[in-house]
Batch of 2 targets.
Target 1
Amino acid sequence: MLNPIALLTQSFKHDALLSPALPGRHGAWVQDRAVAAYLGLAIGDALGATVEFLTPREIVQKHGVHRDITGGGWLRLKAGHVTDDTTMALALGRAILAEQGQVRPLAVAQALDAWMRAKPVDIGNTVRRNLISFRRTGQAEAPESEHDAGNGAAMRILPVALCTWGKTPEAVLAAVRHQGHVTHHNALSDAASLNLVQLLHDLLSGIQQPDKLQERLSAILHAHPVFADRGRRRDNPSGFVVETMQAVWQGFFDTQSFEDCLVDVVNRGGDADTTGAIVGMLAGARYGLDGIPPRWLRALESSVRTQCEQQALALLAYSPGLP
Ligand SMILES: [Mg+2]
């Protein structure tokens, strides 16, 4: 396995293209992409929650093609409400903003612990176990575990991507680990989170060509071949971050619009709120606010929408990449 820093440096080889001064990529354009990424996370979560834990066949029987934010699902959500994917990202974002744009493990652990005390509608087992352990020990970093390869750290990574755009590869990797290890101290979780941050940074920098974006996949597949889908369609993805990322990458690279991308991914069922949330961040950063269907924006619960919009801009303001 490659040393992560070497891998990161190698996979940043087209960073010459990532100059913040890229023609046309002015501040307002980047802000649009950042806000769209945050709204995309919440929309994917709200859309996918309806069909979480269903198989694709069950979704067809129940909904045909699921393409509207209707609430329901096993959590019996109100239409437009979101789950832990979005509310944990917002809690993480608040912790970063309170630390002037820095990702500090203790601040993250305290924020996520406060989030858990507020009785969220949903919480993953790994998140719960390691936050309870933090309460007992005061140790912000969970012990390393090969079993903690769930998608819970990757799904809330967006605030880290927004405040680290333009930072050095070493600083980006440190921030990814600081936030992830509070609940998921695991190499596969770290690799998935880093890949998402790299893709988001590319998209914020105006890189749109699929072959350029796919260079980020080559790096992670080389370091961790377990992520390879071997040409098989990933339906019914579980909470295992490898299956999550396979569904996300397939949906992201095989579609050409925000709507088609999210519809593709959530209709695969399984952990659909989380795959929807993750691919929603990427699709928002790729297609911008104009790409988001107005009916989905209108459906999103208004306080969630406002928090996403405000946090996106506030976090981005700490990013050295902003022109
Ligand atoms: Mg969820």
Target 2
Amino acid sequence: MIKGNSQNFEAFWVKYDNYKIFEYNNEFYIKPSDKSEDNVYNLFDVSSELLVDFFLIGKEVAENWDHRDIHCELKSKEKKYQDLVLEFVKKYGLLGEVTYMPINDNFISDNKVLLPGMNGKTESSLNEYLKIFFEYDKKIDFNKELSKDDIIYLFGKNGDGTATYLNRLNEYALTFSERYSEKISRILVYAKLMYDTFADMEKYFWEENENQKEIYAHFLKDFKPCNLAFEINYSEKAILRWNFTSLKQAIETMLGLNVTNDRKDVKICKRCYKPFIAKNLNSDYCSTTCRNVANVYKSRARSKEK
Ligand SMILES: [Zn+2]
């Protein structure tokens, strides 16, 4: 980490010690393994590594992008991408999409979910919404209204206790449950979106042509993390605790904090476009190899000009 870069931030998230990938209805999902244990950790202890690891998945997807596979369903069936996702999730936990998407925080007691739509809000019943994340579990019938017992079942043995421990709403018991699953293809699509966004942010600053700069700025306007909440804890020093709705929201916030910092921790290599943790302010390349190659090109360009 670059010196002088520390802010007193904390944000807690949950990861299990093991996860499994499984197929359901011809789609691949990831969830905690049976008998795995959950752990709580501070996202800001690992924020730079987390960003780099997630962007690396996105870069892999972006470089092999196929416009016919826009939702990454084909990629999600390939072992290469499944392994990338598994490795990331084992280190940092699932993305927490179930609590990321709703506009209404208390969607369990509301018994409906308000979602941001193309033209304003759209509404979904609770059972239809939770089906996205728990459908594989045949103990629950998602075609009818869910009972209190159904919800408690979905919390699993860990979800409720962890949500209480972290002082979060009941809804987080779903995110932290060992029964909670996410679609591999959706994680891949999101990783690509985040990598592309970060690459555009970097290119905006590299670009010298004003018209081109404007194009990047235009795309970057679409990047708007919402629903942020935080509190300040006073102990020996004041610590800002971010109450993220999800790992997704954490990633978006960390990306925002990174790009607006004069001492950017995470950068994209100017030669190979790989994300990396910068050792000092002036590092523009991920490795000595990339720096040397770039310097050779630069001096060739210079001698041509002469
Ligand atoms: Zn490089």
